[in-house]
Amino acid sequence: MTEQRLKKSAPKITPMMEQYLSIKSAHPDCLLFYRMGDFYELFFQDAVDAAAALDITLTKRGHSHDGSEIPMCGVPVHAHDTYLSRLIRKGFRVAVCEQTEDPAEAKKRGSKSVVRREVIRVVTPGTLTEDTLMDARSHNYLAALAETGAEMGLSWADMSTGNFHVQPVAAENLPAILGRISPAELICPQKLLEKPELYDLFADWQHILTPQPDVRFDSINAESRLKEFYAVASLDAYGDFNRAELAAAGALLDYVELTQVGQMPRLSTLSHIAEGAIMEIDHATRRNLELVQTLSGERKGSLLSVIDRTVTGAGARLLGARLAAPLTDPEAINRRLDMVQYFRDADQLRDDLRQLLKETPDLERALGRLSLGRGGPRDLAAIRDGLAATAIARTILSGDAYPATGELKTAIADLGNHFSLVEKLGRALGQDLPLMARDGGFIAEGYNERLDELRVMGSESKKLIMALQARYQEETGVDSLKIKHNNVLGYFIEVTAKNVDRMGDQFIHRQTMTNATRYSTTELSELARDISESKDKAQALEQELFDSLASDVTLQADQIAIAAHALASLDWASSLGELAIEQDYCRPSVDNSLAFEIEGGRHPVVEQALRKAGENAFVPNDADLGNERRLWLITGPNMAGKSTFLRQNALIAILAQMGGFVPAVRCHIGAIDRLFSRVGAADDLARGRSTFMVEMVETATILNQATDRSLVILDEIGRGTATFDGLSIAWACVEHLHDANKSRALFATHYHELTALTDRLGSVKPYSMRVKEWQGEVIFLHEVAQGTADRSYGIHVARLAGLPGPVVKRAEEVLQTLENGEKSSGALSKLAEELPLFQSLLEQPVAPALEAGPSALEQALGDINPDELTPREALDQLYALKQMIETDK
Ligand SMILES: Nc1ncnc2c1ncn2[C@@H]1O[C@H](COP(=O)(O)OP(=O)(O)OP(=O)(O)O)[C@@H](O)[C@H]1O
């Protein structure tokens, strides 16, 4: 609906609709949840969209200025969370508009006055705080991207937990970084969307983009906003930020303020992520390695899902975040490893701690809601139980048997001391807690004297009502006389129609029903008033007590957040300790060398899948990418396990640098700065890229960016084009990787010809996947061994896959012909005569085969040692070489 239309329609409509339209015009990009009594109503196009998205009935209410009926639909307030979450998941933003005054107040202004309403919050995917709207085990990040001069900065925050980060970014690294953070919403200045070099990037993140006016990204304003938020005179203590980082973090705060309508959440100290502190994993690699979700977008089947043994939501979120961002500093990695090792070694202690954590509620998210004024009694209970757990955790961890050191010692100190708050909440809260404070009944008996009195008055009055009923029964002689209650009449006396004559003058008639008549008395009305007053007073007092307890909590928000993080890191470390024992993982040694030595490495996901399926155990394999064997060329049949081997080494590196144990017997890794891969690709038709184009774009990124500290995994480069094109590209890539990038690399290929390079390029070594032929069958051993594979066994795999028998047989014939070196048109034409299908092959000129290994000329040149030749011999050799060329012609 356009603003223009709204304005034009304004004069002819009801005052309520006028109010609706004016609020809606301030939020044109949102669905407006307009509060009317117990419902949030939606009108016009909002109603049409929401009814379709939620599959609810679309009705009509009144008429628009042009006489057309106004579409309407509504959702009940008490169940609106579910509807809200469905709308947010479908990509809508929702502005929640509440009544902000009592209807009685509005009436005072005149009978036609409309109750005042205001938008109290704009719900967007990146600003959620409710448990029902989020996944408990993953973060929900809002990100902001800003550019100032030549610099770019990215900031991100999880409003539900208070995490707040910022880092400098370069345009070419942006996809990798966004892939790592995986925000639910990305805000950026309008002007960035117009930059041609960022078109592709924004195409990928289109579904989460919220463009904002450029002025919101002003770095000077941003800096003052940050200072104001943290109430500091300078941000120096938080890190050395560039202008773009400040602009991004400030714009993020601005957007939060805008959507929360002034109600700011608690955010932890802005944490600065230095350039190079995190192993960069580009977007395609992250996707293809299925780190936190599979290619089809599910958590199940990802690396995260098979290593996750955490027992709390916060622990799971920390594991997800750390897995997505492995470190590069060996010292920091080893500090984490020490903590995991501690728990791996301390069996009983680990069990006790995990048992405790299992029962511990989500402190972070409860704190987030309370600090936004959106919490309820259950959040207070979560704080009480979470903080109580910190004391028990400290007791568990302070036994003499396993003295804590390093990072663990810090975590124990961070647990803090929250005795008085726990004690107070323990006394204050009752047993059965409602979700909302306004529902009442959550303060325990004995906590507040006045509340106890009011409650006694309430229940006493109820007893008095029972007594009154008995008295009236006696006085009237009507045994069936009852005192009842409903929302319209309040308390009333009810007798059946046949007893009406027995009701004396004191009974004031209220209502006649078909079979019954209802009355009240002065006495009953007074009693009812007492009951209602004490109930209202009790409710108001409980709300007051709630607010005071919530403010006790928020006053200590920082210490609680630190304790919550400590609990999360204990869960993180003890779960990885548990995993190491259960799956027999080893502690990796990570340092600043260029080593990559894995002994008995396994693929964590395939290994567990095979075990579950009850199939043969996973075959462990070694990898050693030491300097003189930096680049492994791996050949071998289809289905032999090349891809698995490549991926397992990448996953081991990620696990190691996250600070976790790894599926291997021994592992030594020199910290990797960036991980690149080119493993499997799909079309990117949305951007007009074919499979081969995608493959080449990814390969180009690797060759342009990989360093000697990088790990590169390449699976079948060049397979998407004609054989000789593909082989030539693969050939040149190996040379470039070896000579220019000098990265540690695993290169799987079906081009056996490439192994000729192993003679010429010093650090390229040939490996292959072993197979055994037995009684005409091929058995895959899944073992990596030195040397080159002799065959691809593609036809064998085709048979396994169920290609029709005649096709397989025919393929074998063709293969044999080709393998016999009979690539001449004679042999092919013989085949083609037998089957017209092969005619097409004949029509294509056969490209000259690329020499496997050095040519005769190169060989002869290589054999010459100029230092040992006389001038005469040298001249003779020259003639001989020239002669070789002539003969070749
Ligand atoms: N080390 C291993 N131990 C046991 N089974 C394995 C191992 N490696 C691979 N496999 C099994 O073999 C299957 C094929 O492996 P993979 O996809 O890695 O083969 P590939 O050589 O890359 O094949 P292709 O060339 O056809 O892509 C896997 O799905 C897995 O079940």
CATH superfamily of the domain at 589-798: P-loop containing nucleotide triphosphate hydrolases
Which spans have pLDDT < 50 for at least 5 consecutive residues? 1-11, 835-852
CATH class term of the domain at 589-798 = Alpha Beta
- Biggest sheet: strand arrangement: 13-23-24-25-21-26-27
CATH topology of the domain at 589-798: Rossmann fold
Helical fraction equals 40-55%
Q: Specify the biggest β-sheet.
A: 7 strands, mixed
What does this structure look like?
- The structure is a single chain.
- The chain has about 900 residues and is α/β, with parallel strands linked by helices.
- Among the domains are: about 1-125, 3-Layer(aba) Sandwich (MutS, DNA mismatch repair protein, domain I); about 135-275, 2-Layer Sandwich (Nucleotidyltransferase, domain 5); about 465-535, Orthogonal Bundle (MutS, DNA mismatch repair protein, Chain A, domain 3), CATH 1.10.1420; about 590-800, Rossmann fold (3-Layer(aba) Sandwich); about 805-840; about 855-889, no CATH class.
- The strands form five sheets. Strands 13-23-24-25-21-26-27 form a seven-stranded mixed β-sheet, with helices on both faces.
- Strand 14 and strand 15 (about 490-495) form a beta hairpin.
- Helix 17 (about 375-395) crosses helix 19 and helix 28 runs antiparallel to helix 29 (about 805-820).
- The chain is elongated.
- Adenosine-5'-triphosphate binds near residues 641, 642 and 782.
- Adenosine-5'-triphosphate (ATP) binds near residues 639 and 642.
